[in-house]
Design a protein that fits this description.
This protein is α+β, with helices and mostly antiparallel strands and 300 residues long. A hairpin with a 6-residue loop joins strand 2 and strand 3. Helix 3 crosses helix 8.
Length: 300
């Protein structure tokens, strides 16, 4: 299928923007990328939508604690202290380089992920079938990725770049579903279920729900599932845990897995999709923007 000229032009401009990204201030980069994404100038003086307010938080809410909380290794200690070790997926090993991974010492099933970005992950369900060279290349590339440079999510800038090996937790149907709660000042308001994330040949799906698990008709980066999303057994418990973990922050997304009724913490995300992915229709973006009360003082 041929791409339309506007799509080609926009893609070219994005590439040019990223080429000069490291020479640009955070504010300038955000203003440029916002205009390219949404077709209008961002209003940082009086932001209204959720996405717009996320950009304000990137620039003016620089709580140094965030760096430890987005570190996929360090955050486990924080979570264990607040809600208990039983909700944390066990860490098997930590490596500074992909070449340091001792595959022989790992169990038959495991997960490898980088601590500082959003995409460096290798899932092994059978070590005898694992392409170790490919896994090393994937993780080595992820370690070299400067996640901050192209998102301006400043908490990731100083996260030590490491690889952690985690225990693999099998699911009944092979689909590891993510339950992601958008919390505002410690109150969960909206959530979505991410499914088919690691299913070969399937596109990831996002389905949004309110806190009574009523489906919300919205798309954000991915299509809705064609299957009925059943309310997870631990939904109410996850809401309570999300409230505990999000207390004291103007906004954070708290992610969990519910596997056979057992809840596991996923991660804390302060900038969903970096605030650069549209909600369709736009209503939920505005609604969540109303929930997000920006701090009165700027912390730069």
């Amino acid at each position: 299928m041929l791409k339309d000229p506007v799509h080609i032009y926009r893609g070219t401009v994005y590439r040019i923007l990223n080429l000069f990204a490291k020479q640009m201030s955070d504010k300038t980069y955000i203003e440029c990328k916002w205009f390219l994404t949404f077709g209008r100038r961002i209003n940082l003086d009086a932001p209204r939508s959720f996405n717009e307010k996320l950009q304000w938080l990137k620039l003016y809410n620089r709580n140094p604690q965030y760096t430890r909380l987005v570190d996929k290794y360090e955050v486990k200690k924080h979570v264990a202290t607040l809600i208990g070790e039983e909700y944390v997926t066990p860490t098997l090993a930590v490596y500074e380089r992909a070449e340091d991974i001792d595959f022989e010492a790992l169990p038959n099933q495991f997960v490898l992920k980088t601590t500082h970005d959003s995409g460096g992950i290798v899932i092994c369900t059978d070590k005898s079938k694992l392409n170790k060279e490919k896994a090393i290349k994937t993780l080595d590339k992820a370690l070299k990725t400067d996640f901050y440079a192209y998102t301006r999510e400043w908490p990731y800038k100083d996260v030590p770049r490491r690889i952690i090996a985690e225990q693999y937790i099998p699911t009944p149907d092979g689909d590891l579903r993510d339950y992601k709660f958008f919390c505002f000042d410690g109150v969960p308001k909206v959530m979505f279920v991410a499914a088919d994330r690691f299913t070969p040949g399937e596109e990831t799906t996002f389905d949004f729900f309110d806190m009574d698990f009523n489906h919300i008709d919205v798309r954000n980066g991915h299509p809705n599932s064609t299957r009925t999303i059943v309310k997870p057994e631990g939904f109410e418990k996850m809401k309570k845990l999300a409230a505990t973990l999000s207390a004291g922050f103007p906004h954070v997304r708290v992610d969990f897995y519910d596997i056979n009724g057992k809840i596991y913490f996923g991660e804390l995300t302060f900038f969903h999709f970096s605030g650069f992915v549209k909600f369709k229709p736009h209503d939920l973006d505005i609604q969540m923007g109303r929930h997000l009360a920006l701090p009165l003082e700027k912390h730069i």
